[in-house]
Amino acid sequence: MLFNTYEPWKFAFSSESSDLDEIDVDVEFNKSRSWGIIGVPFDSTCSYHHGSRYGPTIIREASFGFEQYNVAFDKLLDAEFYDFGDLNIIHGNCAKTADLLKECVNELVGANIKPIIIGGEHSISIGPIKALADNEESGDLSDITIIHLDAHRDIIDEYMGEKDSHATIMRRVYDLNPKELIQIGIRSFSNEEKEFIDSKDNITTFLAKDLNSIDEDNNAYYELVDTLADIEGKIYITIDMDVIDPVYAPSVGNPTFGGLSPEDVEIIFETLHNSFVEDKIDVLGFDVVEVASNKLGDSTAILAAKFIHDFLTLFG
Ligand SMILES: [Mn+2]
Question: pTM above 0.85?
């Protein structure tokens, strides 16, 4: 692959330093605005379009196409953040890779640096989420709201006999007892998943078809904004890039039509940012997964880089 950037292994505008021993963040973890990027080039359980192992590389490369001034939010990306490179993953082993990632994120937490994880397939999200649970007094997610953007619920207990898979990730998260799980942009799930969701009262769903409805009497979009604005306390955000319509983001593991637009994610971020500046929420971590491309200039990779750039602009 030919790179046209000066330092393709680090996200654009990241700090020079990526040695944890040299970084001194003197703010408690929950309130810290220092972020650390870890790439996880892992795609073992992919069931359709493989290649998300190239996500971290191609997303970082795409990040160099952005300006520091972020027009969408009229704000400069002036956050101090670090890019620690890629995790040494174990191909073919979800559980061991997740454990290694958890250890790495625990080190970041110990240094008061919050994780931004670039996937990789969605199964890797369990690494940072487990690390955050471990660092809670309760040892679980009972104080943490999980905001999950995805075309799929990913909440089946086993997929093809496997407990750890890109298709079961939110079930493994749910096993950790989240305060609330908010699923946004959903448009594909099994009957078993539907029955599971219907039996739980702390899972809120915003179907893509309701968010995309042009029916003036359908207020799903306003409901979404109200729901997000009402969140208090700690949150974690996971974005499966297939939440976005394949018109914008075709290079994902399981493309599904009828998705959200990039501007929808801007509105979601901006709504959360309003609560963030009021100290109503603490954003503990963020991941962007399932970009499956090794092609320079891939639109899905550019969009994923934009989401990370937007996130750092608002929460850094
Ligand atoms: Mn998905």
Answer: yes
